Amino acid sequence: MTEVRVRRSSPSTMAFSSVLLFIFSIYSCYAQVPLLMWTSDGYSMPHLGQPAAGQAVSGGQLVSYLKSALSTAPHNVLLFLQDKLSIDDFTMYGGVFGNKQDSVFLNVESALQTSSSPLMLPALDWSASNSVLELFQGELGIPAVHINPSTLKEIKLNTTQPSLLVVHLPYTAGAQSKELLLKNDEIIGKVLDMFKSQDVSYTAVYTGLKPSRVIEDTPVMAGSFVGRSLLQASSEVPSVKPPVVFINTLKQPCILLWADTLLASFLGNETDLGKDIFNSSAPPDLTGSVCNETMSRLVLNYQKVLNFQSLRLIFSMRKIFFPVSARDWTVMEQVVLEYDGQRAIFNASGGIYAPAEYSFHCQSVSSVQNPLLVPRNATDNATQWKLTFTDFQIQGFNVTGEMFSYASDCAGFFTPGIWMGLLTSLLMVLILTYGLHMIMQIHTMDRFDDPKGPAISVPLSE
Question: 327-339 and 342-347: which strand pairing?
Fold first, then answer.
């Protein structure tokens, strides 16, 4: 097959420069790596909202991004993995300050500009980036093929089946980093050119396994308790937890659930009901779940848990219109545990609610401390149970994809810290007011000694 050189046109430099300047101005944290994702010409990805300024994209959020992107993007995936990559690499060698002739990302720049809907995540948790390959293998259901750039001419692509091609790009910090980045960009251009020559649509991803400027630039003192020492010592890839998604009869997502833990304790015996539904490769059993315009019911089914033959955890939500706010609200009516023919019912409407178009999030949803889950009555079976959900997020209405909408958090406005600040400020204002009042009560002398007149005599005999 004849190798076709990559066409390096003269695209608008302002767009790419402004994107990189925007990325660098907002995300100056060294603990994350960037991720760039684009499609071949003629294809597009659904509109994916950019994360908020300063927010690092976690592994669970990355799963949602990839699922949404692959719903319309080509399933021939090119994964360019660089050992180390940081935003500083684009700033130093991308020509973002007008030195476009010095840019080492010409092919990446051209690919991003020709793509109709590129995805740029400037701050991806680098530990999550280690699992990008596993995420794509899980989503596509195929093993990855590691290719050598020197053997590109020998590769023949099968357009009838999805493929996952992985190209490992080296990185060396120091004086040679610019030259190596330029060579890596040329490799990316050759691979993209190979796909174009064979008329194969593709989805390309460019990211790093670790940040390039965390360990090399900052020495870690022995025994110092800092985050960078943990990043240096850590080699394990944390488990990635995509949200639980219930698909309705129209093959559309209608309920989303995510939690760090779903702890359930019965008479002292405790288990995490979330470890099997979030970490397992097999989909959770959602038999009995249902959703419509006014009611959503998510059912998590378990077998042989806490010495029970069967157990079901049920979240019942309802959309209610409140005239005072003139809008619809999602209210969690009940959280129910059904186990071996018995039921434990917790009322949740007092604290778990959010606008219908939002998701609900709370760092801790518990029936024990600051309870948002309250047993229905004092004699109910729920008094034998203790539930604690950490980093809990759920959405039962207005679900537009496999990503949560804006979260309405359970934390009230007047937190203990705010109350402490208000009371301290009030005390300071009272002290200042009292001081001013005392100063205003001071009277000056109404008689003064005139040096030109007779001296003031004060008789002392009487």
Answer: antiparallel
**pLDDT score for 448:** 61
Residue range 315-343, pLDDT digits in tens: 999 999 988 888 899 999 999 999 988 99
The encoded tokens of residue 411 equal 């934390």
- The residues, any chain, with a CB within 8 Å of residue 363's CB and separated by 6 or more, are 390, 391, 392, 410, 411
User: What distance in Å separates the CA atoms of residue 378 and residue 107, rounded to the nearest whole number?
Assistant: 68
Could you read off the pLDDT of 363-394 as tens digits, one per residue? 889 888 778 898 887 777 888 899 999 989 99
In angstroms, the CA 52 to CA 444 distance is 61
Joined tokens for residue 284? 């959770």
What is the 3-class SS of the chain, one letter each residue? CCCCCCCCCCCCHHHHHHHHHHHHHHCCCCCEEEEEEEECCCCCCCCCCCCCCCCCECHHHHHHHHHHHHCCCCCEEEEEEEEECCHHHHHHHCCCCCCHHHCCCHHHHHHHHHCCCCEEEEEEEHHHHCCHHHHHHHHHCCCCEECCHHHHHHCCCCCCCCEEEEEEECCCCCCCHHHHHHHHHHHHHHHHHHHHHCCCCCEEEEEEEECCCCCCCCCCCCCCCCHHHHHHHCCCCCCCCCCEEEECCCCCEEEEEECCEEEEEECCEEEECCHHHHHCCCCCCCCCCEECCCEEEEEEEEEEECCEEEEEEEEEEEEEEECCCCEEEEEEEEEEEEECCEEEEEECCCCCEEECCCEEEEEEEECCCCCCCEECCCCCHHHHEEEEEEEEEEECCCCCCCCCCCEEECCCCCCHHHHHHHHHHHHHHHHHHHHHHHHHCCCCCCCCCCCCCCCCCCCCCC
Strand partners, 121: 35
- Give pLDDT tens digits for 107-136: 888 888 888 888 888 778 756 666 777 888
Lowest-confidence region among 151-155, 267-271, 303-307: 151-155
Q: Which residues of 263-276 are buried (b: 16+ CB within 10 A; e: fewer)?
A: bbbbeeeebbbbeb
CA dist list (Å): 210 to 371, 398, 440: 40, 36, 65
pLDDT confidence of residue 23: 46
Task: Give the CA distances from residue 90 to residues 17, 39, 279, 426, in Å, rounded to whole numbers and listed in that order.
Answer: 10, 21, 34, 49
Q: What angle do CA 315, 69, 29 make, to 5 degrees?
A: 90
